[in-house]
Amino acid sequence: MSRRSSPPTELDLELAELPEALRWREWMGRVEAAIFASPAPVPRETLAQLVGAACRLDDLLADIDAELRARPYEIVRVAGGWQFRTRPRHAAALRSIEGSKDAGAPEFTKLEMIALSAIAYLQPVTRAELSRFAGREVSRDVIGRLKSCGVIDAGPRAPAPGAPIAWVTTKRFLETFALDSLRDLPDLEALERGGLTRSEPNDDVDAALDDMLGVDGGEEDDVVPEAPEFDEL
Questions:
Q1: Can you tell me the distance from the alpha carbon of 197 to that of 188, in angstroms, rounded to the nearest whole number?
Q2: 200 vs 174: CA distance, rounded Å
């Protein structure tokens, strides 16, 4: 005879029987546990289902973050939700461990970073348009490397001869660079005034792009990891 599963116990959200300080700590524990257990960013709406009506969720999250200041990880808002992330200064150590879960942003070359930044701002954008933006050729290998890292994907075909693929960023892009949305990117007009768009390569601008997304300069341009080619004209 099969055993019936017990119905889930209704969660007491208000915790009215607890003193205020203990109630706050319990809410903190629930929210922290939910974020820790999830492999993807947890939306605010989900976290709100774990606490009472009197809970100020932003203050609660700020208190969790404050308690983690001495820890090698932090709680950040990315891709429309909240997630635990290893602090950037530990990324190199994690990359040295095979199969590490969270090693921070991949080590992109300068040209890959320029192409990725251009896609983030100009999407959907073709490879030919990226090459004009960068002032140098953006090869299929560069596009393939970015796609293999999951930070870009094929968008609509462009209304141009040959109908080339136009590229767009992904949710993984937001997660990788700890962005809540594309609105968190620096103002494009300000970057243009600083020389972001140009016809010739500029090392100062390349460095600014590295800083913009919080990564180092990566490998030199002529060291491009192998990547599969895609059907893109």
A1: 10
A2: 28
